[in-house]
Design a protein that fits this description.
Layout lengths: L3 H5 L8 E6 L5 H13 L4 E6 L11 H16 L3 E5 L23 E9 L7 E6 L2 E2 H4 L2 H8 L7 E12 L11 E2 L5 E6 L2 E6 L10 E10 L10 H19 L7 E7 L6 E2 L11 E2 L2 H10 L4 H5 L10 H30 L3 E5 L20 H4 L3 H5 L6 E5 L6 H11 L5 E6 L18 H14 L1 E10 L30 H16 L2 E2 L3 E4 L2 H7 L5 H14 L4 E4 L1 H6 L1 E3 L2 E4 L2 E3 L1 E5 L3 E2 L2 H12 L3 E5 L5 E2 L3 E2 L1 H10 L5 E4 L5 H8 L8 E4 L5 H4 L2 E8 L3 E9 L4 E6 L2 E2 L1 E7 L4 E8 L4 E5 L4 E7 L3 E2 L4 E2 L5 E4 L2 E4 L17 E8 L11 E5 L2 E2 L1 E6 L2 E6 L4 E5 L9 E8 L3 H4 L13 E2 L4 E4 L6 E2 L2
Parallel strand pairs: 1-2, 1-18, 2-3, 3-12, 12-15, 16-17, 17-18, 20-21, 20-25, 25-27, 26-28, 27-30, 38-53
Antiparallel strand pairs: 4-11, 4-14, 5-10, 6-13, 7-8, 7-11, 9-10, 19-32, 22-23, 23-24, 28-29, 31-34, 32-33, 33-39, 34-38, 35-40, 36-37, 36-39, 41-52, 42-43, 42-44, 44-50, 45-49, 45-52, 46-51, 47-48, 47-50
Helix pairs in contact: 2-3, 3-6, 6-9, 7-9, 9-15, 13-14
InterPro entries: Class_I_gatase-like (IPR029062), Galactose-bd-like_sf (IPR008979), Ulvan_degrading_GH (IPR053161)
Length: 908
């Protein structure tokens, strides 16, 4: 339970933090005044970041470190803390170029490939790699090229032939068709701009019609490091971390609490001959070969071809094997080295990698690179085990996945909450993204920050508080004015920032003191990412599920397949650590480690758990590649009563009836839907969590008009208290006696409530999903009610169908006096009868009708629903006028819900 002091004045781990951009060496007076200005604005911590306009030769110099020490003196005086932003500009690892000075062997090294056809000319085969360009740095214009590359030039040396493989130019159906010719091939020419590999004609096997070669080279002019080499990270801590430890003196470990890395990555290169499955060059070190062959039962050279093209049924296995070794080597070599240094020296490690889902819900996004796998293999859960504080990146004010993903990986590693770095890029036509958004309003910043908190953020990291606002030159990056604006302290609204900061910190304290009510686990499709890349449909399916669940207020986490495999099945729940999930979602999970993953899912279904899946189902494993037996087994699971499957991302209407029962054991928030708000993206964001006394709810109306919400407590009577993050006040409201609570939320209003548990549990919803029959077209058949009869053998029937169901209710639930029957989806009109008593005629849905007191019985309830369809499927049958039949009948499972409305009491 948060103390009243922490609520009134949030500590430095909950109140907003900020980057402090230095564009030149600050004066002592500037340091004192700007630290004080940050403190007055409600920032409780900061990170000093030298930007591209800062003279690189002065970074980590004596005067720079002395200025940092003075900043720490001032921070301590204002009871603030500091995180070390560990790099000049960003791309942590190069220390402004110091890491590779005098150590050329540590510069980034990359793997390239090229394919040539075998002709009948009788000549040797030549494969060339040239015209190599960094797709990420090019976006940073000339200043970026000179920052990353000496003299702004990309030059290569130490060319190495890694593999030369002959194979069919058409489909490769088996690995046996790949012939390793590496020992006979040679590098014919090697220059600063590229190389050519020669494969002698005489060694080419019969039947092969193409040759693919893989070559590696060191970028001789790059200041970026080879992240696969632990010695590069060790050198980086020597020249980039140790100087701070010495300079900060007694502040180290007290005022200075952690180091923060930012998007460490080798450059993403493409070249004229680039083609195939992987979207850019790969980091390379000889240790990659040795480790791969020690860990996997496959030759490294032949396996490489799977990164360019399909090689038959083993393609998914070879890709997963490669990226498993690749990501683990990079993560352990770089992040493991940093973590060990920080632990030895008494500070924590934080920071964030390149994330595919920045500014979206889709983890296959390519905001920086064409293929996120080429960095650290998209293994966000594995990387996080080296951090002490999870951090993520977020761009602009679009609702997005970042905070939810950050909180999820933190919980998988025994922590919770995350720090969200929030920056802004220009989206105006004709503008460069670095021009930022000077038009940002404080209301928009506040709304985005609240969304982040609701989805798992503990702290906002503002990008950024500026030393200076530059001048009128229209130059990206080197003129601070156009270096990811806004500099918040140069916004006219900055004097109002303190109110925003206090509210953000208090909301964080309010939420952070709870265990979130999360009953849905969304499996992160790591191996589908490795095998399928950013073009795989898992991205769209993950985006649908994560956004839908967030907007509808369902508590959920993304979970790692490694945790699923180790999970227990207890009382119908998937138990991962101390978390319990009643529903598991597979969003395009096509490739899994092996059949053990499906074993756990099958046990979960057998125990009554709910499994939802969309897109490709598991049909391949890292162990064996394409697995027809596994595919058949998954198809069989789709017939389970508690599993639902959709080949394409489902509609919100399709999934709501399945998801809705998950709310039954908790306080439920129902939101009105004026003007189609749910379809327009307007959302009342919700958070529900348990503390020692009961439930905490946070609600945020993310719309420009009022929204009405109804809160149904999980037990009555419920004592309700309102916490006001804008002022720090805590106000007792009322004790409810069997009443639902109705709130009218003003535009962009944030409400925080505490509901102390009552003594009488409210029964859960009873979903009437199984056991239905349908009488239509002269016969009676079993029928599923999660989809219309037109999809169950009656595509040409139009008319009235009679649905029937017999069901029982536990006698204990019948003690609750008031119930209602809900038909979420009917196509199109319905007449309802329960135990011989008419409940009404309804021309359209959804339907909610009161059940008369005493009508329900514990056994033998009889429900009849007469549904009238449209005439479309009769009159269009056999014609070309409609591609698919019209929805007909019930489209979602009806449910019985305990009603609180007769005793409803509202409050403002």
């Amino acid at each position: 339970m948060a103390s009243s002091a922490a609520w009134r004045e949030p500590d430095p781990w909950h109140a907003p933090a900020t980057y402090w951009f230095w564009h030149r060496l600050p004066t002592s007076a500037e340091i004192r005044e700007q630290v004080a200005q940050m403190a007055r604005a409600g920032f409780r911590s900061f990170q000093i970041q030298a930007r591209m306009s800062f003279p690189r030769q002065e970074y980590l110099g004596e005067r720079y470190l002395a200025a940092c020490r003075l900043a720490a003196d001032e921070a301590a005086r204002h009871r603030m803390i500091i995180g070390i932003y560990d790099e000049y500009n960003w791309l942590s690892g190069h220390a402004g170029g110091r890491t590779v000075e005098g150590h050329d062997e540590l510069r980034e090294r990359h793997l390239f490939w090229s394919t040539a056809q075998i002709t009948d000319a009788g000549t040797d085969v030549e494969c060339t790699v040239d015209d190599i360009h960094p797709t990420d740095v090019e976006y940073l214009l000339d200043p970026g090229m000179h920052w990353v590359f000496e003299n702004g030039e990309v030059r290569w040396d130490e060319w190495e032939l890694v593999a030369a493989l002959a194979h069919p130019a058409g489909d490769v159906t088996d690995e046996a068709q790949i012939h390793d010719l590496t020992e006979s091939a040679r590098i014919g020419s090697a220059e600063a701009g590229g190389c050519t590999v020669v494969v002698p004609r005489g060694v080419l096997p019969t039947g092969s019609t193409a040759v693919t070669v893989f070559v590696a080279a060191r970028c001789a002019t790059s200041r970026m490091i080879n992240y696969l080499l632990p010695e590069a990270a060790e050198r980086y801590t020597d020249v980039g971390y140790a100087p701070y430890a010495e300079a900060f003196g007694p502040h180290w470990g007290s005022t200075v609490k952690y180091a923060f890395f930012d998007q460490p990555h080798a450059c993403f290169f493409r070249w004229r001959q680039h083609h195939g499955h992987v979207g850019s060059s790969l980091m390379y070190a000889p240790e990659l070969v040795h480790r791969y062959e020690a860990e996997h039962d496959a030759p490294f050279r032949r396996s490489l071809l799977a990164l360019v093209r399909g090689i038959g049924p083993t393609t998914p296995a070879r890709r997963c094997d490669f990226f498993e070794t690749y990501s683990t080597l990079g993560i352990d070599s770089f992040f493991g080295t940093l973590a060990r240094w920080c632990r030895r020296h008494g500070i924590a490690l934080s920071g964030h990698e390149v994330l595919g889902h920045v500014s979206s819900w889709d983890p296959t996004g390519t905001i920086i690179t064409d293929d996120p796998r080429t960095n650290f293999g998209t293994d966000y859960f594995g990387l996080d085990r080296w951090r002490d504080h999870t951090a993520v990146d977020a761009r602009n004010t679009d609702p997005q996945l970042s905070a939810k993903f950050g909180d999820s990986v933190a919980r998988a590693n025994g922590r919770s909450g995350c720090l969200v770095e929030q920056y802004f890029g220009s989206t105006a036509t004709g503008s460069h993204f670095a021009a930022g958004q000077w038009e940002l309003t404080l209301r928009d910043l506040r709304a985005q920050t609240i969304r982040h908190h609701m989805l798992g953020a503990r702290q906002l990291l503002t990008h950024a508080f500026w030393q200076t606002d530059g001048d009128d030159r229209e130059e990206m990056f080197t003129n601070p004015r156009f270096d990811f604006a806004p500099g918040v302290n140069f916004e006219p609204w900055f004097p109002y920032h303190r109110a925003f900061a206090d509210e953000s910190g208090r909301l964080s304290v309010f939420l952070d003191d709870t265990e979130p009510q999360c009953e849905v686990a969304v499996v992160y499709p790591l191996r589908s990412s490795w095998a399928g890349g950013p073009e795989h449909p898992y991205g769209a399916h993950t985006a649908f599920w994560t956004e839908h669940l967030a907007r509808k207020g369902y508590g959920y986490h993304l979970v790692d397949e490694r945790d699923v495999r180790a999970a227990a099945v207890e009382n119908g729940c998937l138990a991962i650590g101390g978390r319990r999930y009643r529903c598991v979602v597979l969003p395009g999970v096509e490739v899994v480690r092996d059949g053990s993953t499906v074993d756990v899912l099958a046990r979960f279904l057998d125990a009554g758990g709910t499994l939802l899946a969309s897109g490709p189902l598991p049909g391949a494993t890292q162990a064996d590649g394409v697995d027809a037996t596994l595919a058949v087994r998954m198809a069989g699971l789709c017939d389970a009563a508690t599993m639902s499957y959709w080949p394409e991302p489902p509609s919100a209407r399709q999934v709501e009836a399945v998801l809705r029962p998950l709310r039954a054991r908790h306080a439920v928030v129902e939101v009105d839907d004026p003007m189609g708000s749910a379809d327009s993206g307007e959302t009342v964001w919700q958070y529900a969590g348990r503390d020692t006394a009961g439930t905490r709810l946070a609600l945020f109306n993310d719309a420009d008009h009022r929204r009405t919400v109804t809160i149904r407590p999980s037990s009555t009577p419920a004592e309700v208290t309102r916490w006001r993050p804008e002022s720090g006040a805590i106000e007792p409201l009322r004790t409810t006696t069997g009443a639902s609570l109705t709130l009218s939320l003003a535009p962009w209003e944030l409400v925080c409530l505490s509901l102390r548990d009552g003594t009488t549990p409210v029964p859960g919803d009873r979903v009437l999903a199984e056991g239905w029959t349908l009488r239509a077209a002269g016969s009676t058949i079993p029928i599923q009610v999660d989809r219309g009869w037109e999809r169950q053998g009656l595509a040409e029937f139009s008319g009235i169908g009679e649905y029937r169901l017999s069901f029982d209710i536990p006698s204990g639930d019948l003690a609750w006096p008031d119930w209602e029957l809900i038909l979420p989806v009917i196509d199109t009109s319905a007449e309802i009868e329960l135990n011989g008593t008419p409940l009404g005629r309804y021309g359209w849905g959804p339907v909610s009708c009161a059940v008369p007191p005493g009508l329900l019985r514990d056994q033998g309830n009889e429900l009849r629903v007469h549904v009238a369809s449209t005439a479309a499927n009769h009159y269009y049958a056999g014609t070309s006028q409609r591609a698919t039949p019209a929805p007909s009948g019930l489209g979602a499972a009806p449910l019985l819900r305990p009603s609180l409305e007769r005793a409803s009491a509202g409050f403002a």
